[in-house]
Amino acid sequence: MKTLPQFTVRSLPIALVAFLAFGAAQSASAQASASANATATIVPAITISKTSDLQFGLIVAGPGGTLMVGTDSSRTVNGPAGLTNASYPVSAASFTVTGGANLTYSVSLPTSVSLSGPSSSTMSVNAFTSNPSSTGTIGAGGTSTLTVGATLTVGAAQTAGSYTGTFSVTVNYQ
Hints:
Elements: H1 6-29, E1 47-52, E2 58-59, E3 65-69, E4 75-78, E5 82-83, E6 93-98, E7 104-108, E8 112-116, E9 122-131, E10 135-137, E11 143-154, E12 170-173
Antiparallel strand pairs: 1-6, 2-5, 3-4, 3-11, 6-11, 7-10, 7-12, 8-9, 9-11
């Protein structure tokens, strides 16, 4: 049987220890880690409440036409003669939007609404507009005013009487 030289037998454990120490050091230096914070901010729910209704005012029956109430409560008449007095005001609808200060919100308006009147008569309201138009910002105090106007289509010889209908405005944080 052949024997290994004395030098090889004694060096083998030292070489093995050196290899293991070097390998462990390599594994430790091949890893790295970092930490990050997780955060969340809770804001109040956005709400909208009606302050005043959309009012087209007093309209005289006739050949038909359209009446537009702007977001500033101005009225433009195309066709029927429109009359306004203290008992029949003209105004844009007004809403208060409440939520987190300085946050932006989107506005969704209806496309068309039907007003119902006497003897199953109807009139159509469309071309809704708002101020702010498609997006708004809640003020530093947590509120914002939103006004809505629209166009009313009056038929020729529209049945006289009071007409009413309901429409919804939706706001969402952006």
